[in-house]
Specification:
The chain is of the alpha+beta class and 214 residues long. The strands form 2 sheets. A 5-stranded antiparallel β-sheet has the order 8-5-7-6-9.
């Protein structure tokens, strides 16, 4: 992790994937978990603010920008109203924006795996009907996976991200085989789903379906 003082009121921190791994955190841990995001940001502040110049400030603001292999985090203090307005017009941190950024990072990591010839951890499955989703949700082998349910052209799609720290190679293969009993591999891309599809259930699609229909 690299840090530099932009000026007396702003610190720039470069956070790479390896830095997250050293802290036992993955992008998936941060996705959708706003309390975890805030805690993570302040833990970074604890590390870089050695002289307690920022922690003593009443107002600390975080900005996040994407980076090829991680994130750039800008930590600012003592901002004037004019500065705050500029941030609002540009890249001030919003939870939903950060969620989207993390999803892009997960997708980028998955694409890099594809290019290297290894197994993609982000998969899209096509369901024959919503009844197949209900049947799939009656089992528990996807409880630890990130599952989004989309509707595109009157067809249901389940987008699944398998965290490699939870699903090893054998577990990944076993769970994929289980899914294919109720769904089929799809050529529809994650980009197409996110741009043209309707997101029906986010992150906990399996658990949500189970709670309502089983």
């Amino acid at each position: 992790m690299e840090m530099e003082h932009i000026n007396e009121n702003t610190i720039r921190v470069i956070i790479e994937n390896e830095d997250l791994a050293e802290r036992g955190i993955t992008f998936l841990d941060l996705l959708g978990n706003h309390r975890e995001i805030e805690s993570f940001f302040y833990s970074i502040l604890e590390e870089v603010d050695i002289e307690d110049e920022f922690k003593s400030s009443e107002a600390v603001t975080f900005q996040v920008l994407p980076k090829n292999d991680g994130l750039e985090l800008f930590i600012s203090k003592n901002l004037t109203p004019e500065d705050l307005n500029k941030m609002n017009d540009s890249a001030e941190f919003e939870s939903n924006d950060f969620d989207q950024l993390i999803r892009q990072q997960i997708l980028a990591n998955s694409e890099s795996l594809d290019e290297s010839g290894e197994i993609s951890r982000l998969r899209v499955f096509q369901l024959g009907s919503f009844e197949d989703m209900i049947e799939l949700a009656s089992y528990h082998f996807l409880d630890d996976a990130w599952c989004d349910l989309y509707l595109l052209n009157e067809t249901y799609y389940l987008q699944v991200y398998f965290d490699p720290e939870i699903f090893g190679e054998h577990a990944f293969s076993d769970v994929t085989a289980e899914i294919l009993e109720y769904a089929q591999d799809s050529s529809v891309s994650t980009e197409m789903l996110e741009e043209y599809g309707k997101l029906l259930m986010k992150q906990d699609a399996i658990e949500t379906t189970r709670s309502y229909f089983n």
